[in-house]
Amino acid sequence: MSRTKLEYAPTSPLGWRPVFWVVAAGMMLLTMFMGLRWGIDQVNVPRTDLFAGTLRPERERAVVHLPAEVPLLSVLVEPGEEVRKGQTVALLDQAAIESRLLQIDRQIKSNAIFRECLLAPSGFAFDPGVDQGFDSETQLLIREGIDTCQSTLERYETRVNRMDDVRDLLRKRLSLLEKNLTLVLQQEDAAEPQAHQALEIALQKNRLHERLAQLDAEQLDARETYDEDRRTQQTSAAELVAQLRHQRAVLTRFKEAPRLTAPQKGTVARVRPLLAGNAYSESEDLIELHDERQSSFEAEFVVTLQQAHAMSEGMRVSLNLLGYREDGPILRGTVAAMQTDPDGKQVLAQVALDAESLERLADPAGGIALKGRSTASAISVSLADQSLAEALQNAVFQTVPTPLYQDFPARFRQLFMDHAL
Questions:
Q1: Which DSSP state fits 3?
Q2: What is the largest CA-CA distance in the chain?
Q3: Where would you find this protein in the cell (predicted)?
Q4: ∠ CA 108-111-117, rounded to 5°
Q5: What is the model's pTM?
Q6: Which homologous superfamily is 41-58+294-385 in?
Q7: Residue 125: Cβ within 10 Å count
């Protein structure tokens, strides 16, 4: 019997074909993932958050102060006028200053004597020697002060005298009750009526003693009130004398040189109106100067802690000045510094403006020039456009609680985003 020879047959490719398709699918997915990653990085997404902030000149403004109670004669400059350092910009009313100095001297003397009267053991016996060396107006002021001092003492003594009169009447009433009680006890009538009368007299005596104790308390309160009034008047008189002496020193200085000068070179930005011969009750800024060389401005805005995580120093921002229309000027800059407030609830971001934006702010022809620290503009700040990858990253971490996010090391956060995107 012959055997059939087996012929060689090639192995079927079904053994390696699944591996090929798995590798091919992996390569396609990797290619799609890399393309998607590249596309996400290339797509920019505008930021919709707006932050409130302020914009102001960086350096202090220069002003010409008019001290309190110093009368003005005239202002010699107008807004827009150039002035040099030390130039006279306003004249003071020298005649009014001399008159005011004379009045201050009278007030100082009268208030000093008024305080001495309050410190005297008895205001009625106080004799300041009004007729010695004082003019008629000064004598009148001194007499008014003494009258006020004596009226305070007179009100107290009148009240005390009235209470003393009432006390004398009550004591006389007590003496009569004592006599009546003695007579009642000496009666030989029935014991029951005698006991009722004695009890009634004892009750009346008790009420009189209570009234006497109340009068003693009222008299003590009157004395404390009088002493407190005297101390208050003494303090007020001493404070007024100190203020008058300070004002006298200021006026004496301007009496010798009745003018105001510019503290530095610059342009008059504002003149506060004041009629000739008048003065301010408190020190005020009369003239404001603007240094033309000033071209630095500072801008800042506030963000929450979670919003601050999506920001970093060097990030580009745009600033819109509020109060303008939609086509108003747009300023640009970068985040220069970020500082958390002491409460730890928000972050203050400081902006360094671009050179072009600084020139626009400093140019009066542009209509947005800011002059003086008191002149600040409210702004809204928007961050520069971000890529789609950054938008997804910020969306992820803004949903994570802030303490938990802060605990993530930076390398882990980056590693997570690299694998997630």
A1: P
A2: 178
A3: Cell envelope
A4: 140
A5: 0.46
A6: Efflux pump adaptor protein, beta barrel domain (2.40.30.170)
A7: 7
Could you read off the pLDDT of 74-110 as tens digits, one per residue? 999 988 888 898 899 999 998 999 989 998 888 888 8
Amino acid at 316: R
DSSP 132-194: SS--HHHHHHHHHHHHHHHHHHHHHHHHHHHHHHHHHHHHHHHHHHHHHHHHHHH--S-HHHH
Handedness of CA 152, 154, 160, 166 (dihedral sign): negative
Non-local (6+) Cβ contacts of 6 within 8 A are none
Mean of the pLDDT values across residues 219-234?
Answer: 81
Listed by start position, the domains of the chain span 41-58+294-385, 62-92+258-290, 96-256
Q: What is the pLDDT of residues 5-40, one digit of tens each?
A: 444 445 545 455 666 676 667 777 766 656 555 555
Distance CA 53, CA 299 (A): 7
Residue 69 to residue 97: CA distance in whole angstroms: 9
Whether the per-residue pLDDT at 371 is higher than 60: the answer is: no
Residue 351, strand partner residues: 299, 335
144-159 burial, b if ≥16 CB within 10 A, otherwise e?
Answer: ebbeebeebbeebeeb
pLDDT at 329: 66
- Sheet of strand 62-66: strand arrangement: 62-66, 284-290, 266-271, 82-83
Question: What's the rounded Cα separation, in Å, for the pair 17 and 12?
Answer: 10
User: Percentage of the chain with pLDDT > 90?
Assistant: 4
CA of 186: how far to CAs of 180, 181, 198, 214, 356, in Å? 10, 9, 11, 33, 116
Q: Please count the CA atoms within 13 angstroms of the CA of 146 that sit on its side-chain side.
A: 17
Asked if the model's pLDDT at residue 419 lies above 50, the reply is no
b/e code 279-290 from CB counts within 10 Å (16+ = b) = bbeeeeebbbbb
3-state secondary structure of 352: strand
Look at residues 394, 296, 313, 299 and name the one whose alpha carbon lies nearest to residue 51. 299
Backbone angles phi, psi at 17, to 5 degrees: -65, -40
Indicate the SS3 state at residue 285. Answer: strand
62-92+258-290 belongs to CATH 2.40.50.100: yes
For residue 260, the model assigns a pLDDT of: 92
On the question of pLDDT at 246 being above 80, the answer is: yes
